[in-house]
Please model this.
Amino acid sequence: MSSFLEKVIGPRVDQSELEKNSLTYGAPGFLLLIARVLLLVSLFVPFWHMELVAPQYPENLHLIAYVTHLAGDVAEIDSLNHYIGMRPLEEAAQIERSIGVYLLIGFVVLLELASWIHSRWTVLLVLPVLLFPAVFLIDLHLWMSYFGQNLDPDAPLSNSIEPFVPPVLGTGMVGQFKTVAMPGLGLILATISSCVILVALFFHWRAYAPLVKAQNAAKKAEEQP
Amino acid sequence: MALTRFGSKLMLVAGVVAIGTASSVMAQSISDVQKVAKERGLSTQDLIAAAMTYTPTGMKDEYVIMSSGGHSGQVFVIGVPSMRLLKTIAVFTPEPWQGYGYGAGNEILDAGNVQGKENRWGDTHHPALSETNGDYDGEWLFVNDKSNARMAVIDLRDFETKQIVKNPLFINDHGGAFVTPNTDYVFETAQYNVPWGADYAPMSDYKEDFRGAVTMWKFDRKKGRIDVDRSFSIELPPYWQDIADCGKLESDGYFFLNSINTELATGGIGVEGQKNPPFEAGVSMNATDYLHIINWKKAEKVFQAGKTVTIKGMEVIPLQTAIDEGLLHLTPEPRSPHGVDVAPKGDFIVVSGKLDPHTTIYSFAKIKKAIADKTFSGTDEFGVPVLDFDTVVEAQVEVGLGPLHTQFGPDGYAYTSLFLDSAVARWTLGGSYGSLNPEPDWTLVTKTPVHYNIGHLGVAEGDTIDPDGKYLVAYNKWAVDRFIGVGPLLPQNFQLLDISQQGTHMPVIYDMPLGIGEPHYAQIIKADKLNPWWVYPEIGWDPHTQSVDPWAPRPKMERVERKGEREVEVFMTAMRSHFTPEHVTVKQGDTVKWRITNTERAIDATHGFSIPVYNITLSLEPGETATVEFVADRAGTFPFYCTEFCSALHLEMMGYLMVEPRD
Model:
């Protein structure tokens, strides 16, 4: 094994040491397992939800975003949006939605790997997962900006509306519609997952940092004649 | 500001005018109520009635009346207790708002053509909700046309007429529609008799050639259609068969039908040399007429055994066969009867004769025993056995003048309309119903005047095995002085009565004018039994077949296709606020098959579609597809447009049909 790879993987723990301090060494792995489960569940539940409130719609219009697809009153929202020249919602985030499943499975694999690695490289592996909720919201915001600011000038009501960007979380106004955007269960689970990963990293550091230190010290001692 | 302007426009885009819902929150008290009552001259009783019926915006009704529309040829749907008209259903009569008979629905109306002639009106009389185990199931509604003896089937998923069948044997019916407890059959009985198929015969041959009959239309619930091939009729004496009712529970398998004109009067006043009395006298001479007791389950077996003759294309059990097989018995009933109504348990049959102040109650157990024991007082002049009156009668109750129709409450009360008294009578049943109320059995409890000249009445679910009581509606003729004048053709008056309390308290609590004619019977169903669609299930739905039309135009597949030298097919979609394609160009003389789909899914996104000159108007509810065919024989420029206020840009939802002259 090359020394670099060895360095990445980090020190292994003896069986006897493992049995003696099973909680210390087990905690980070267990927490990362919880994070994986949370991510897997989030795949099946809505990530984000927007409610459009107007007098004509007593039950409001709903737009629901999953990692993989859009749901709710997409057709009705599209049919209203055509008046102001907004693109059909299905055209938004097509790549993101098509790779959503693989992305999340990739995240699960990364977390799996991270729990086998006992070095600071772990941080690098979990970083994409850690940032995922924030990236999701930023991506959503960018798409909404793009859609809200690139209206078809030839649309029936195009000269009656100025470009707009509804807030990605919280309430806004578009025409007579009040928009109420809130995180879905999926996004909440993903965020909890990120928090759990942070805690896992702490325990990871507490368990393996001394070992890495010891290993490095031993190596140093070896190198010095 | 641009955004505000957009706001006000988009508000209309969805097609609904928003009414401010923020009611002023003011401290109000009972003294304010008293003030209003004083100003308007309302009594405490009026205020209670208002509280019982007033239905604020958004509150839904508890019951729904399905009312015949008489010679409007329609059916009315009315909420109870608000007494608001919710819908009219076009049945025998074209109706432009529903797009019925102006390009679409024509095949349904055409099936009701009579001897090849278009009859574009009907006289709807007795609607019948489909039943399961003797209780309304809210799925189908049947209604007869008295004027031409036709039966219609209405699907309660979309409240639209799906089928009209013409009775080939007779030209006039009254006793219909009545369904068996599981809606296996829908009954229709002849009234003003004619020779089979309304062929010609002189009046002098009345007894020999004129025929009475009852038709049992087989209903195929899966297909939602009357199956004409599995339907049959039973020949009856040429009395005027009148209203009927199906047996249930104890009397399941039987059908009760009363009759007038057992005198076989043929009328004829005003004809030189004619000595007969007028019908009104001739038909009312006998002290009794005949209640027909028909064993329909046995008749079905006789039909299936092939003991029928084919007349005018229909299988008919001849009168003699009906007698020989024991399908038909008669028993006397007070003269000129009108209503016959079976009590909830099926054990009593209540008959009211308009010229007799009593209701007569027959016991089904006694009828069954008399048939088994052959306790006949003789036969009628056609050989039909007549059960002895005294042997089968349970009781007679004096209720008032001109009793017509009876329905039932849950607490052992029966309610009978009194035409001459212009009142509703509450009286008690006996037998096992007797213990349900404090009054003695078979007695009149109270009468409430109604305004005016009541015909039928309806109690909530009052002709099922499980009546609800609570509300009674008097279906009155002519309001006379109840409303402000609107010309000599007066509205009818549906009056709501509160029957929730036992005893003599039975007040009128609401008047509903009906400026459309002329309701006869109506049934009142619990609203939660109805489960209609809000939009059609899928885009491209053909309401006639209740399935997706494979030819339905779909988005991005719109086109005008020339199919031949003189044939063009249009595939069009409708969506707020445009038709695609917007220009349709054909040549004069082309036969145009115009298919159009409303691709909307929103519940208020109905589009109309109309073409001038060509007499075409359609209603396309969300998801609906329709096909209209016409010959473009007039060259010219024809703007077609959406007739429903569908959106803010509704006026812009139009296009042009260009018919190029052929040279």
User: Anything to note?
Assistant: The longest strand of chain A covers residues 177-183.
